[in-house]
Specification:
The structure holds 2 protein chains of 2 kinds. By secondary structure, chain A is α/β, with parallel strands linked by helices. Chain A has a single domain, classed as Alpha-Beta Complex (Amidase signature (AS) enzymes). An 11-stranded mixed sheet of chain A has the order 1-3-2-4-6-5-10-11-9-7-8, with helices on both faces. Chain A is globular, with a radius of gyration of 21 Å. Chain B is mainly alpha-helical. Chain B has a domain of 46 residues: Histone, subunit A (Orthogonal Bundle). Chain B has a two-stranded antiparallel sheet. The longest helix of chain B has 18 residues. Classes of the chains: A alpha/beta, B mainly alpha.
Chain lengths: 487, 96
């Protein structure tokens, strides 16, 4: 049986568009139809505009008919996490604070996708202001995991992962501050890439923790991730932390770079708390690389146990500062009960923010407050240095690091109510953000219950070509993403 | 780092400009107390002589050419304002 159109790979679809076997209008209509068929169960999208998408698909087909296609992404429907600005479209960040906000401008990645001819399709649900690991913190809806509707899709980019897994888009974008692309990718059997900090402009991304946030793609294959990355990476003067580095042809690198590589296995990522089925799947992946001629070497990242604490101090501190902009004055919810300016601040923020956002702002405010700054924030920044040095030291011996993406497969909706337990979900992913490194989650099998398992590969700074080539070696030899959800 | 995290929830909520209900205060104080207990582990790390990291790849002195560019129009800048008057954002009276 052939794979239904909206579950096919982006590269395969691009070939069909290029050959004329398929039009963007047909493809976009298929995505609209699939969304109509499954969205009431999956709840991955906060909004979508079929007429707008079809108009852009039509324009794409006309460009192609005129012999002027804009590249491999021309005519491909891609949904964006609802923290990325698209002019004249809503941007809620999953929050009541921005329930009525309509973006007056495009994010840099949006501009780049438009220039590539992408059909922008749908606003993907997420945890409020990207704070969470299950997408249960969205103020609007709870997204289900397409592989088990009683389970979470992960988070915070859960809508982006679930939409792709359910065939509601051909690729999606998310953002990753502590694992928010990689963890939902692992839970939903798709590829999720968090590039090196600074590779993709954050201009137009609703900020959570600015020194950690990165935008990245969700795709069905590593090759597809290479295509999307190539379209959105690059220096941008509007993001002062954007890095000036040449952008190679990531897709071509997949063919050019064949290894064999030296892969590091950090023993700290295989200890207590790792689900045995996840551990077994990752062991099989390691064995695959060994058989492929790679050198497998145990490495140590000794400060791993401090990653989570360091992350939650730094991320909440930055969040408390970033989210001060939501003051009820200029472009957000304003409390109808506000009688004076103090009310505008206190009541609007109290009504507009949900529980987890309030908790993180409170924690971040506390760790930055007078008398506690040195003990918490400054100390965490120093431990961050040590965590980063751990990785850079490991890279003296290995090309990349291989770990599970998550300690467990997807958990049940409503099951994890204690904030600290939820934070522990990010235990294998936050170190990558603290160190600013690129990381990718690749489908690596299923549990006996049929829940997806993800393998994480962590690369060296700005060496996405190598990271993608290493990931592609495994991904192109397996077809886990071909196992579709039963919806 | 103090031995017992002493999170004064009233004081911190005031600093954060968030009005919390008594229920929220009780719940957050307990939940964040647990989180703070967890992060106490950072005390074990020897950070003597370690420089703090603010950004993984520090980029300093980023200059842009001084070129005039079109910004948001007033109409665009105001389109999400909760209240506006005569091309300005309106707020409750600040000075009596």
């Amino acid at each position: 049986m052939s794979t239904p159109l909206t579950f096919q790979t982006l590269s395969g679809i691009a070939d069909q568009l290029a050959s004329g076997a398929l039009t963007s209008v047909q493809l976009t209509q298929a995505v609209i139809d699939q969304t109509a068929a499954v969205e009431s169960r999956v709840n991955a999208l906060l909004s979508h505009d079929a007429a707008d998408a079809l108009a852009h698909a039509q324009a794409s087909d006309e460009r192609r008919a005129a012999g002027k296609p804009l590249g491999p992404l021309d005519g491909i429907p891609i949904a964006l996490k609802d923290v990325i600005a698209v002019r004249d479209q809503p941007l809620t960040a999953g929050s009541k604070m921005l329930e009525k906000f309509v973006s007056p401008y495009d994010a840099t990645v949006t501009i780049k996708l438009k220039e590539a001819g992408v059909v922008l399709w749908g606003r993907a649900n997420c945890d409020e202001f990207a704070m969470g690991s299950s997408t249960e913190n969205s103020a609007f809806k709870t997204t289900a995991n397409p592989y088990d509707l009683a389970r979470v899709p992960g988070g915070s980019s859960g809508g982006s992962a679930a939409a792709l897994a359910a065939g509601e888009a051909i690729a999606t974008l998310g953002s990753d501050t502590g694992g928010s692309i990689r963890q939902p990718a692992a839970f939903c059997n798709v590829v999720g890439l968090k590039p090196t900090y600074g590779l993709i402009s954050r201009y137009g991304l609703a900020a959570y923790a600015s020194s950690l946030d990165q935008i990245g793609p969700f795709t069905r294959t590593v090759e597809d991730a290479a295509i999307v990355l190539g379209a959105i990476a690059g220096h941008d003067h509007r993001d002062s932390t954007s890095f000036k580095t040449p952008i190679p042809d990531y897709r071509a690198a997949l063919q050019e770079k064949k290894g064999p590589w030296k892969l590091g296995i950090p023993k700290e990522y295989f200890g207590e708390g790792l689900d045995p089925e996840v551990g077994a799947a990752i062991e099989k992946a390691i064995e695959f690389y060994r058989q492929a001629g790679c050198e497998i070497k145990e490495v140590s990242l000794p400060h791993t146990e401090y990653c989570l604490s360091t992350y939650y101090i730094i991320a909440t501190a930055e969040a408390s500062s970033n989210l001060a902009r939501y003051d009820g004055v200029r472009y957000t919810h304003r409390s109808p009960d506000a009688k004076n300016i103090e009310d505008v601040y206190f009541k609007s923020r109290s009504e507009g923010f949900g529980d987890e956002v309030k908790r993180r702002i409170i924690l971040g405010t506390y760790v930055l407050s007078s008398g506690y700054y040195d003990a918490y924030y400054l100390r965490a920044q120093k431990v961050r240095t040590l965590i980063r040095q751990d990785f850079l030291k490991a890279y003296e011996e290995v090309d990349a690091i291989l770990t599970p993406t998550t300690p467990t497969p997807a958990f049940k909706i409503g099951e994890t109510t204690d904030p600290l337990s939820m934070y522990l979900q990010d235990i294998y992913t936050v170190g990558v953000n603290l160190a600013g490194l690129p990381g990718i989650s690749v489908p690596a099998g299923f549990t006996d219950e049929g829940l997806p398992i993800g393998m994480q590969l962590i690369g060296q700074p700005y060496q996405e070509s190598d990271l993608l080539a290493i990931a592609h070696t495994y991904d192109s030899a397996h077809d886990w993403s071909g196992r579709l959800p039963e919806l | 780092m103090s031995n017992t995290p002493d999170l004064n929830i009233d004081r911190v909520a005031e600093l954060a400009r968030i009005a919390l209900t008594p229920e929220e205060k009780t719940a957050y104080a307990a939940q964040l107390g647990e989180v703070l207990k967890h992060v106490e582990q950072l005390k074990q790390v020897n950070v003597d002589g370690v420089e703090p990291t603010a950004h993984a790849f520090s980029v300093e002195n980023v200059w842009a050419d001084d070129v005039a560019q079109t910004g948001l129009s007033a109409e665009d800048a105001l389109r999400n304002a909760p209240a506006q008057r005569q091309g300005m954002i309106a707020v409750p009276k600040v000075v009596d």
